[in-house]
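Input (structure):
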């Protein structure tokens, strides 16, 4: 799983079974990690970041669980930004461009709307063997 290119010395990883409880565990872990890193829970990027994370983990559980028994979330942080990647071993790679152009209101459309609204970026990175992918979100703090 590739990590973001920016200098982000803070790291934390979580791997959970690809089942419904993964979403709650990912959110709780994100809240814990952000608190440990000194990010104010009232920061305007925190709630949208948690929603984005929830949508991405939900998508992995819904669409990849048959081929990917686990979901991994990697959190990375630096002085002025937060990044997280949601990884599964399903080979299908969603089109973030199409999601951004589509109608908002659910799934990747919501992810893209929130990410761009915060001045962030999103990218899909495939595994070297072509059998998995990560969706990375980077948000300014």
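Output (sequence):
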């Amino acid at each position: 799983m590739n990590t973001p290119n920016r200098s982000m010395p803070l790291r934390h990883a979580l791997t959970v079974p690809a089942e419904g409880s993964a979403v709650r565990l990912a959110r709780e872990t994100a809240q814990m990690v952000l608190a440990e890193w000194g990010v104010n829970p009232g920061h305007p990027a925190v709630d949208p970041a948690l929603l984005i994370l929830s949508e991405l983990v939900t998508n992995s559980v819904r669409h990849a669980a048959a081929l990917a028994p686990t979901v991994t979330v990697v959190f990375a942080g630096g002085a002025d930004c937060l990044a997280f990647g949601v990884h599964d071993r399903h080979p299908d790679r969603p089109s973030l461009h199409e999601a951004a152009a589509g109608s908002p209101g659910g799934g990747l459309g919501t992810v893209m709307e929130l990410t761009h609204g915060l001045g962030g970026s999103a990218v899909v990175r495939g595994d070297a063997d072509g059998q998995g992918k990560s969706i990375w979100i980077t948000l300014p703090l």
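Notes: The mean pLDDT is 91. Residues 63 and 83 are 23 Å apart (CA to CA).
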